Amino acid sequence: MSQENQASITADSSLASLQSFWNNNRKWLLTVVGLVLVLGGGWFAYQQFYQLPREQKAQDAMFKAEEYYRQDSIQKALNGDGQFAGFLKVIDNYAGTPSANLACFYAGSCYLKIDNYEKAVKFLGDFSSSEKLTQARAYKLMGDAYADWGKAEQALDAYKKAGRHFKEDEANSPEYLYLAAYLADRIMKNNAAAIELYQEIKEKYPRSQQAFDADNNLAQLGVYADPK
């Protein structure tokens, strides 16, 4: 039998198998396809006609609150001014939108400024971003809140998360790690943790000011740089 005939028989057999599968499972397949279309259409409609308008309204509401934030008018930024909504209203009224998520960051920062550390931690913890620079900043602010609240262990964890979240950021990451190291060193008196963090700064960010400061602090802890 020629190769052409073999290929023809194989193709016919495959087509027959597909036809048999279709005939035996037609109702089930049509149901699945219908569900996919309904769900896909529903999701598209939800995004286009519900979420997108809500996000636009949330952005409009955020505008004045962000202005008050830049002016350091914290209470107006949080609660609004009677005419424009503050961050808290944006969070309540437009939950699930990107602007409401960003409002959590702002609200947490506001509460940190007025020394309400519990609420600062809550709102900063509710914030989440794929933008590494901003997310690392949120972890750092959580560290500040915990530290001022007197919760050193939680502050240490938050500072370490901040310093390790965006390793490529050579401006802020060594600063955040240094905050963790300094806290472990001077507040917690945890020499082992402090030494590990100071050495991490020297290894990852050798050209930073924090690496230079780490050398001095390591010397005070009895750890000296190897002579070159």
Short recap of the structure:
This protein has 228 residues and is an all-alpha fold. It has 10 helices and no strands.
What would you note in describing this structure?
The chain contains ten helices and no strands. With 228 residues, the chain is mostly helical. Helix 1 (3-70) packs parallel to helix 4, helix 3 runs antiparallel to helix 4 and helix 4 (98-113) packs parallel to helix 6. The longest helix is centred in the first third of the chain and has 68 residues, at 3-70. It is flat. The model is unreliable at 43-50 (pLDDT under 50).
Query: What's the pLDDT, averaged over the residues?
Result: 86
Instruction: Tell me what portion of residues adopts beta-strand conformation.
Output: under 5%
Amino- and carboxy-terminal Cα gap = 79 Å
SSE order, one letter for each helix or strand: HHHHHHHHHH
Ordered list of secondary-structure elements with their pairings:
Blueprint: H1 3-70, H2 74-79, H3 87-93, H4 98-113, H5 117-126, H6 132-149, H7 152-165, H8 173-187, H9 191-204, H10 209-220
Helix pairs in contact: 1-4, 3-4, 4-5, 4-6, 5-6, 6-7, 7-8, 8-9, 9-10
